[in-house]
Amino acid sequence: MFTGAVVEILLWINYLHITPNTHEILQMFERRLFSVFFPDILMAMATTRNVMRAVRVFEFGGPEVLKLQSDVLIPVPKENQVLIKVHACGVNPVETYIRSGNYARKPALPYTPGSDVSGVIESVGEHVTTFKKGDKVFSIDTISGGYADYALAAANRVFPLSDKLDFKQGAAIGIPYFTAYRALFQKGHAKAGESVLVHGASGGVGIAACQIARACGLKVLGTAGTEEGMNIVLRNGAHQVFNHREANYIDKIKEYTKMQGVDIIIEMLSNINLATDLHLLSYAGRVMVVGCRGTIEINPRDTMSKESSIIGVGLFLATEEERHECATALLDGIEAGWLKPIVGSEYPLEKVVKAHGDIIHSSGARGKMVSCNLQ
């Protein structure tokens, strides 16, 4: 590796004699020299040059298209924007769908993934009065991307992070809890006393749904695929949990509900479970489609027999008023003590490729996956 790098550097030195763009070539020469022989010095230099580390995607594809770069310019907040020094960022399944190019919304290339970050306000743009430098915050969206040392966000997508939670927990709030609340109440119209089945309850959205539903007076059932996952679900609001890897778990759910079914299903893997979900609903029951990784065939008659509904949930379609409603309820939950994000696997920024592989292919979720900036 070093031999090839030295030859490349010598060629650049020779190139200096024949190119008029000497300044640019010197910068390339310097970056290459330090990245090979003095990477620690390069990182220290980056902090004084208004550049940062960030994961960049230049083409859609598998996890390998995630490229960590050390010389990305730190963005400057404009009007109604804030710059966050990122301490942790949530890793969500939807980010893998976007990265693969198989999602309805495709960002312009290149881009940096990541929406729900937690950290400290570094600077604010004009007209921002709700935050100041040094405030602890979390976000539900970013402008520049969260897989980075710094993230730019609209001020109205950022919220104060309570001292009751650490930065890792802060990074587990955004997409999971806002999605769970939206699925339950804004789209599912859940009411106290109703029953809800959280199908795949041991991950970030699942745990959020269990905690919120239990706090709001619903009867909460959950499923998980491991004993550890089942225990986590029970500790976070579920009245009863079932192992969805058992062949007869559907029969157990029906038996538990005395064949009456459940009012709402929060579905994380609809391409596998949707047809079965329709048989688990009560009259006028609702399946809330939160996650999907492919297609499935269903019989529409199964919706007619109970006048049931299948409703898609897209957090990015929420209005400003709906986001405010979510935020108010969740911030109240943090203060009341029932909203306590469970952090599962943790990855440094350098291991984000592995994180994207694991979140799709892991044997069972055990809380919210986060990327932590270890600097």
Model description:
- With 375 residues, this protein is α/β, with parallel strands linked by helices.
- It has 13 helices and 15 strands.
- It has helices at 2-15, 22-37, 39-48, 93-100, 167-170, 174-187, 204-215, 227-235, 249-256, 270-280, 301-304, 320-336, 352-361, and strands spanning 51-57, 66-73, 81-90, 117-124, 136-139, 150-154, 158-160, 195-199, 219-224, 240-243, 262-267, 281-289, 309-312, 343-348, 368-372.
- Strands 3, 4, 5, 6, 7, 14 and 15 form a seven-stranded mixed β-sheet that branches. Strands 10-9-8-11-12-13 form a six-stranded parallel β-sheet, sandwiched between helices.
- Helix 1 runs antiparallel to helix 2 (22-37) and helix 6 crosses helix 12.
- Belongs to the zinc-containing alcohol dehydrogenase family. Quinone oxidoreductase subfamily.
Q: What does the secondary structure layout of this molecule look like, with pairings?
A:
Elements: H1 2-15, H2 22-37, H3 39-48, E1 51-57, E2 66-73, E3 81-90, H4 93-100, E4 117-124, E5 136-139, E6 150-154, E7 158-160, H5 167-170, H6 174-187, E8 195-199, H7 204-215, E9 219-224, H8 227-235, E10 240-243, H9 249-256, E11 262-267, H10 270-280, E12 281-289, H11 301-304, E13 309-312, H12 320-336, E14 343-348, H13 352-361, E15 368-372
Helix pairs in contact: 1-2, 2-3, 6-7, 6-12
What structural category arises from helix and sheet content? alpha/beta
Helix percentage range: 25-40%
Number of strands: 15
Backbone shape:
globular
The profile of the biggest β sheet is: 7 strands, mixed
Summarize model confidence as the mean pLDDT: 89
User: Taking Cα atoms only, what radius of gyration do you get, to the nearest Å?
Assistant: 23 Å
Amino-to-carboxy terminus distance: 26 Å
Family: Belongs to the zinc-containing alcohol dehydrogenase family. Quinone oxidoreductase subfamily.
InterPro entries: ADH-like_C, ADH-like_N, ER, GroES-like_sf, NAD(P)-bd_dom_sf, Quin_OxRdtase/zeta-crystal_CS, Zinc-ADH_QOR/CCCR
Subunit structure: Homotetramer.
Main location: cytoplasm
